[in-house]
Amino acid sequence: MSKRDYYEILGVKKDVNEADLKKAYRRLAMKHHPDRNTDNPDAEDQFKEAKEAYDVLSDPQKRSAYDQYGHAGVDPSMGGGGAGFSGDFGDIFGDVFGDIFGGGRGGGGRSRAYRGSDLRYNLELTLEEAVFGTEVSIRVPSLTNCKSCNGTGAKEGSTPSTCTTCGGVGQVRMQQGFFSVQQTCPNCHGQGKVISDPCGSCHGQGKVQEQKTLSVKIPAGVDNGDRVRLSGEGEAGENGGPSGDLYVQVQVKPHQIFKRDGADLMCEMPISIGTATLGGELEVPTLNGRIKLKIPFETQSGKLFRMRGKGVKPVRGGPPGDLICRVQVETPVKLNNKQKELLREFEESIQSSHKHSPQNKSWLDKVKSFIDDIKT
Predict the structure, then answer these.
(1) Angle (deg, nearest 10), helices 43-57 and 90-97
(2) Between 90-97 and 18-32, two packed helices, what is the crossing angle to 10 degrees?
(3) How far apart are CA 341 and CA 6, in angstroms?
(4) CATH number at residue 12
(5) Which helix (H) or strand (E) element contains residue 16?
(6) pLDDT tens per residue across span 358-367
């Protein structure tokens, strides 16, 4: 299967400069990163394809060879320079993603500071809490810097030593034919430093698992999928790097009366045959109390009544939505003999004229027309 053009993959022109090339790659890498697309099996291949294209086009020598000879100029099996053989995300990953995914591990070793990972907490709210806002306390498990060693991983009174295998950079280069391969240092596992006397509290990890209690203010009007960002409440960074963020994702519980549709609230309201036929006045519940609703005579089942401004005020601004009630004409049940007899008399009294049941007459006319068409 032939490879796609590298410029086409990144969505750039051949005269693209280095800054715009990096922006294009960063955008695609964020879009297709496997950690952000756990439900998309193709995301990893798309991520690797974009990375391979960037590996070549960001290297002046490889880009020149690619512009002259195409994929043959950079394919090692065809005598080229060996695109896509970095063995790890390496420097590119750390440089491009920086503070988004917590940084890479190549190039700078443990002497560089890395941002901590972001965390997500799923928070269930009632509809009322989501509509009016609330403040809740949550307990979040998180990796925090070990207090015994201040996050170094080394026992108190000792310090990590520079890895002699990689010289502290965290990676080693191996020469393979005409090109070199950059790999994570097998001795320090990319850290750049080795801990000979580990801390007893964190066992040399520099971090410990803790539960912390946080107070979260939920603004009024949030809906399913909305997120509240708590800056710096994610996992601790490395080597003095900033902590990640905590994203509290809202999940609204089903309500016994209302369903939410954006800024609108929907509900179904049963009414009796008598009220539907003769009209009347009903009390309708809203999230702010009860209101009166006039039911006109001859109301049909399924009719919608809209109460302006009785819905939800969106969290991002704008006018409140509406409350929409759908009436359901309820058939009476468990009638006694006298009630049944009265109902039969009433039914007989209106069967002599179709004017009392316009929908029934219209349906019968359609059925008659359908049967006549079949016969012809």
Answers:
(1) 100
(2) 90
(3) 83
(4) 1.10.287.110
(5) none
(6) 666 666 677 6
